[in-house]
Design goal:
The complex is a heterodimer of chains A (478) and B (341). Helices cover 67% and strands 0% of the residues of chain A. Chain A has 18 helices and no strands. Chain A has helices at residues 6-22, 27-45, 50-69, 73-109, 128-143, 153-161, 163-166, 174-177, 189-222, 229-260, 278-284, 287-301, 308-326, 330-348, 368-389, 393-403, 417-433, 449-466. With 341 residues, chain B is α/β, with parallel strands linked by helices. Chain B is built from 13 helices and 7 strands. Chain B has helices at residues 2-11, 13-25, 47-62, 79-83, 102-114, 147-150, 154-166, 170-180, 208-224, 245-261, 280-290, 303-306, 319-331; strands at 66-70, 92-96, 121-126, 197-198, 205-206, 264-269, 295-297. In chain B, α2 packs across α8 (170-180) and α5 (102-114) packs parallel to α10 (245-261). Classes of the chains: A mainly alpha (478), B alpha/beta (341). At the A-B interface, α9 and α18 of A face α1 and α2 of B.
Amino acid sequence: MLFNSFEFALFLPVVFCLYWFVFQKNLRLQNLFIVVVSYFFYGWWDWRFLSLIIFSSTVDYIIGLNIGKTYNKQKRRILIIISFAVNLGFLGFFKYYNFFVDSFISAFSLFGVHLSARTLNIILPVGISFYTFQSLSYTIDIYRNKLKATRSIIDFCAFVSFFPQLVAGPIERATNLLPQFYKKREFDLELAKDGMRQILWGLFKKIVVADNAAIQANYIFSNYSTLPASSLWMGAVYFAFQIYGDFSGYSDIAIGTARLFGFNIMRNFAYPYFSRDMAEFWRRWHISLSTWFRDYVYFPLGGSRTTQWKIIRNILIVFTVSGFWHGANWTFIAWGLLNGLYLVPLALGKWNRKHLDIVAENRLIPGAGDLLKILLTFILTLIAWVFFRSDNLTHAFEYLGRMFSAGLFIMPRHTAFLKIVPFILILLLVEWVQRTKQHGLEISGISYRPMRWAVYYSVIITIILFGGTQQTFIYFQF
Amino acid sequence: MRSFLKWILIFLIPLYIVIISYFIIDPFKVLYRYDDYSVGSFLQLNRDFVSTQTFLNKNSKYHYDSFLFGSSRTVGFRISTWMKFLPKNSIPFSFDASNESVYGIERKLNFLNETKVPINNVIILICGDVFFNTVKEGENYLYEKHPILTGGRQFLFQLKFFKAFLKKGFFIRVIDYDLFSVHRKYMDGYLDFRGINFDSINNNMYLNQADDEIKEDSINYYLKRQSIFYKRSNVGNIYPPKIGPDQLRLLNHIKSIFDSNFTDFKLVVSPLYNQTIINPKDISILVSIFGQENIYNFSGINKFTDDPSNFYESSHFRYKIGNQILDSIYLSHKRSVISNK
């Protein structure tokens, strides 16, 4: 069920009431309740894939216990390889089988060899990319002696399947989330209220910004060959805000929902479009995934504490794989690779950790230098988003080619400005003002209560009046 | 926790306004009974529900025994004209539904048969684009079948309408219009101002506003709608065969109901603007089940479909055509097949 659906609006209050009023006294029952409702939530998408998540959770639970029990290096290695094989095997089959078959056939056809191989009609289980990585982080951290294996299968299954973040992240770390299942959750009024605010902000980003931007972006990307370059730039901008509103909106709803139940899950977005360089962008965009790749791929490869060639290699591997994680299409690989290429000069010049502070902190308006950097970084991300959004590489290159043609100086033809640009500006303004806060509606600091309520109702009314046609969350397809 | 619940209750005030307004306004007219569903209506209503509910509300008083089944194209037939061809004392009723399918008609006939309603005379209007659908449930609330016909759950049926009301700013337009009765531009596409009326006794649908406009200034009426009347290819397209096992089962059941009720029935294939002919294979199946003398095929390119002024727009033919069709099928003793180009 989608977060912005009638079914979820019924599901959440029922689960909330049962969680706090019925199961609160017994921790084990409460965690079991989370497992049950999470599986119900997941099964609502497609009950057939419940067996998959249950199986992979069971395998990793057993492997985690056995790794924790033994000091034998070889045995530990075998066990972690099994965990990798099961998790990545399922992921590889469901997500990439057809891609590899098609790519194989295409590659051979370049040499005039025509192979006949069948692709399968495979349905991608929702959330598989997320929960497999989350589960893998558990076994890897045990293997690295960073975490003790849990003896409770209920706690472990609750950690893997926790419904707010099950289908589209944030990809939680066992070191952060699992211990929260070991201790009793006490209802925290301020945490719950702020959770509701974060949910509301997430709904605004998703329903008003992303769903409206999607309509414009879809039109422009479908008709790019007939539109001037200026429209194509608008299309890229619309898509940039579609994917940001969609994904960060979802993350806000997920985090806000978790807080209603007394859980703190990791932040996934930290106002990435205010980044001053691409390194900063990747510290602020899809934080849970980029840190996962940093900790479990980049660092084991040597990170940046190695030769220059290996630094380049490591960065390109991480970003290419990260692109590939997003989907079985060469466009995602190209997107990842391009982002890697953006980062390489920063890493080599040791400028990748230049902007660790918050931009224009304690100032209302950024300086000219910062503003220019923000704009340039945004333009680089736009170019990369064209690959992400395009159906195939040909489409992407054609789109990009037309973006840099003379039509740049023609008025955009598809001018649905009034339908979306005001909301993008509101989003940017609110998030700029709130850039030191966790989310755009963290306004508990406003002491004047009517003002706070005016803000809530303004957002609610905006969602009601200006919500776009419901679109699926983009990251559900990953 | 108490403070939080109090806080949430205040937070959700806009939601209560929406929910309460739904129960007060009943925009789709599915919550309460109405004597006349067209009075005060500013939304497109679920015709299946309205037709069925009108029948249920009025049958005990009027005792209907003759039925016109079909999609919204039944607007092209006047019950008052049909009555001239029916035996004296016949009480006809337009039992139509939007996008009506063979499934919907079979369910209605089954209901009438099981509740021992006399089914003396029937016209089934077959529209090549929608008639052969057998989908029972759709996403769109407009095409949901009345639960009394399908055995479906009332609660789920009502829920579908409530969810439709909550969608995409729909309710804000409904509440606005209900409060102020002012047609604002932003309501277009959500509310229906076409001036559709239904006879409160025989449920016949009328496009009074369109009829008045055509009567007053037909040239301007069609000029304003030039873009709707798309150019046709004049090629004589044919629908692919659509009768499969499901449709066959439903059609056979319909025939058995006619047999057990000694119904005088006629199956009329609509003259549609798209000029597409029902597949000959489907026609021969219909003939084999219902008999050649009962099938009247007006699909394709003919005198009815040639002239755009025979239509209100590119979907619904005007009642003058319906009158000619009734003349044709009742006064002619031969199977009336207009020669197609």
